[in-house]
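Why do we care about 3D structure at all? Because function follows from shape, and shape follows, mostly, from sequence. That is the central idea of this module. The next example makes it concrete: a single protein chain, its amino acid sequence, and then its structure expressed as tokens.
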Amino acid sequence: MQTTRQGVRALGTSDLDAFLALAQQDPVVNVFALYRARTTSLEPRWLGGEVWGRFLDGELVAACHVGANLVPIQATADDARAFAERAMTRSRSVSTIVGPHDAVQVLWNSVSQSWGRPREIRWLQPHLVIDGPPLVMSDPLVRRTTRQDMPALYPACVAMYTEEVGVSPELGGSSDLYRARVTQLTSRGWSFARFEGGRVIFKAEVACATSYAAQIQGVWVPPDRRGEGLAIAGMAAVVEHVQAEIAPHVSLYVNEWNQAARRVYKAVGFRETTRFSTVMF
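And the structure:
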């Protein structure tokens, strides 16, 4: 495969071992990249995009996942600029740039003139992890969801996404795709919720996982039930489920300004390890 003057080229299946070794340098921060690599073997037809690698003296030193999300992996500022140079040779296809703050900031500064105005930028999102038991009692009513729960679960997922991202996941006729994603997570045993009177009053999902780490997304309590401690006890239950059956390290990242959520995660026992940033188009 052709390598550019910046040492960047698309990776393939023959690069899988080198890529896994690179991402394993930080297996919690890079859980998304490791999950995608292990489930696709870096086959473009399964990736729905590409993974770029940067090589110095023949050694893979950094990578970048380029699909719906552009995600830098173990990238220094120089690596991020090299990936940005390649990115600017094509029109923007990604909906987000997300990952460790320093690399995302360099990437965005490099492509911003070409890729247009983003819908929103969220800088300095605390990346949190817990690798021991929760510090609080868990909610025994939080359980894995099933397909039979979809009539109540799906509207809760739409409400969470719309509140968090600022647009509905059903926008532009995408409801079938989003419903399929919610169903997929449920089928994998990666969706957890507490129901009361046929209504979701707490929920969270595993977004991606390896045998070492799992990343949580979609934590939500309906607005009229907030302030009751449902999120603290619910997250403790999710941590227990995930650590017992999926992975021992549980991570997530949260908006810096969301003090209520940050208090919840601190109470459960999460600690900050680094900062992420997200640029959304």
